[in-house]
Structures are given as C-alpha cells and as structure tokens.
Amino acid sequence: MQIRIRQHRITETDDDYVEVTTLTIVAARTEPMWRQYTWTLPELGAWVIELDRLSPEGTSAQAQSRSFWQVLQSFRPEYPLAFSVPVAITAVRVRATYQLNGQLDTLSGIVSRLLPDWDADSGTWITRATRSPAAALRRQLQAPTVATPAADSDIDLDLLADWSEWCAAKNLKYDRVHNQDMSLWDALGDIAAAGRATPRNDGVKWGVVIDRPQDLIIDHVTPRNARNFSWSRTYPDPPDAMHVTFFDETNDYQQSDRVIPWPGHTGDIVVTEELSLPGKTDSDEIWIEARRRNV
Q1: DSSP SS3 for 224
Q2: What's the sign of the alpha-carbon dihedral 187, 191, 194, 198?
Q3: Which residues partner with 6 through β-bridges?
Q4: What phi-psi label fits residue 45: left (phi over 0), alpha (psi between -120 and 50 degrees) or beta?
Q5: Which of 170, 156, 161 has its CA nearest to residue 120?
Q6: Which of 131, 89, 113 is nearest to 249 (CA)?
Q7: Residues near 87 by Cβ (< 8 Å), separated by ≥ 6?
Q8: Bridge partners, residue 206, by sequence
Q9: Do β-strands 254-261 and 241-248 pair in parallel, antiparallel, or remain unpaired?
Q10: What is the pLDDT along the chain (295 residues), one digit of tens a residue?
C-alpha cells in the first residue's frame, strides 16, 4: 500500500502542492498496526497537508488493506512557554504502560512557595518557604500577575511584621492556590481573614486591621455629641452546627468535611450551614476559627 504526502502554504492554492514523500507500507501481519512519519516544514506558518492513498482497496480475504489517518501533530521548534513574568514549571517524565497511555488528565502535588517572610529573631524579611498569611498578603500585592505591583514603600511593612508575629503566636496559616478568577481585593480579603484581619488602604500604604483588642479608643458617645440616641440588639436563630469543606493536610490533602457544633449547642445536630474558610487545611485550626467566628 502506498500513501503520498503533499503540502502547500495556506496562502497558496491546491495547484501549488509539493510532494513530501510516498510511503510504502507492507507487513506480514493481519492485526491492526500503525506507522508514523515525521518531516520538517520549510518555514513556520500555517500549512495544508494532504494524504492521498495511491493503492486501490484489496479484495482478498487473506490480506488487510484498509487505512485510516489517525492524527496529525505539529511541533514548534522553540521553547513552548513564552511569558514575560516568572512562572513555576513542573516537568514530568512518565513511562507509557497499559495503565497510562497518551497524556496525563490530572496532576497534583504538594508544594511550598518561597516568599519574603518576616523573621522575628533577626528582625528582617527573609525569603523562605512559609505558610504565613502576612507573607501571602505581601506577595499578592507585589506579584507580577498584578497590573500595578506595589512597591515596598507602598506597603506598611512594620504593620505586616507585627501581624506576622501575631499569626505565628496564634498558629494561623494560609495554604491555597490562587487559580480562581477573583479581584485583587477579594484575594486580599481571603488572605487577611485567614490571619484574623481585614485588608486596609489608607490612601498612602497597604496594611491590615487585626481583629484583636486595641488600646486606642475610637469614639465616645456622650450627651455632648449625641441626643435621642437609641439602639437595639438582634438575636439571630443560629444553626445547630457549621459544615466546613477543606483539604485535610493530615490525610494527604484529600477533600474532607467537618461538622462543628455551634458554641453552646447540645443535643442532636439537625440544621447546618456552610462555612467557607479559604486557605485552611489544619482541622484543629478549622475547629477554632469556625467557633470563633460564630461567638
């Protein structure tokens, strides 16, 4: 059986076909087989490829002559990743077996990000593997994926250092891959919440407001600055428990669920509500944070 391969540039016509080669395929076997042919195009661009079978269909019951064009693949002769910003790359080399043939559908791994992290012992920011929400927030502000990354002068680094020590004292961590479509402010909000804080920009620098007792008195309500003042308190009807879905670091980061009773609840759990704790993978920390948010 003979198969002819021809090609021409996409800007040309069918009259401009140039023959690449003519393959002669013969084998002493009756089961299906495949053949591959590789060649180099004259130049980069879009090309039209034609395969033409020159041999007629056979009529003998003792020979197989049916042919199929299985796949056409092209390879660009340059580095496949061309980004203007640094990227993290994972290389995988897999031997094809009966269990794996073709391409990998999914690939997962446990990785650590090297970030500028506050070191309380030396009093400086050092680059190391860290799980600190403070380091993650600083990186989010200065990441090359941000349209206008913040400079060090645009961030209250002293406040972040104080927050970093606060997170370390409370054993607060943030473990998450930001592969979702979200705004910068939403990402900062999730990171800060993992460290019991909220992001803040006072018009000069980025920082956080830490959820902890403060000595500074914000305001006084007195007869001199208020009148006809009244207030009321709303008593919500809480659920029996909170349901948290997370990736459990004690179980190879498999997706797990934990039902955390509402503080003060006793008896059977009937009504539950979903609670999202992004970046939390420690089941003990999830227990503390879920109950703390509902006190």
Answers
A1: coil
A2: negative
A3: 19, 50
A4: left
A5: 161
A6: 131
A7: 81
A8: 155, 201
A9: antiparallel
A10: 889 999 999 988 888 899 999 988 888 777 778 888 999 998 888 999 999 988 887 777 777 778 888 889 888 878 878 787 778 888 888 776 766 666 777 888 888 889 999 999 999 999 999 999 999 999 999 998 888 999 999 999 999 999 999 999 999 999 998 877 889 999 999 999 999 999 999 999 999 999 888 888 888 888 888 888 888 888 888 999 999 999 999 998 999 999 999 998 999 999 999 999 999 999 999 999 999 886 6
pTM as predicted: 0.70
Distance of CA 95 to the CA centre of its chain: 27
Looking up tokens 């941000």 gives 146
Could you tell me the two tokens for 145?
A: 């994926």
Going by their DSSP bridges, the two strands 2-9 and 206-210 should be labelled as unpaired
- Beta-strand ranges (E) seen in 54-181 are 114-119, 124-129
Return the SS3 of 210.
Answer: strand
Residue corresponding to tokens 């349901």: 243
CB 100, CB 155: distance < 8 Å:
no
Residue 248 one-letter amino acid:
D
CA neighbor of 140 nearest in space, from 185, 97, 170, 99: 185
Q: Which of 239, 280, 236, 243 is nearest to 263 (CA)?
A: 239
Structure tokens at 10: 């996409």
DSSP letter for 278, please: T
Look at residue 14 and give its three-state secondary structure: helix
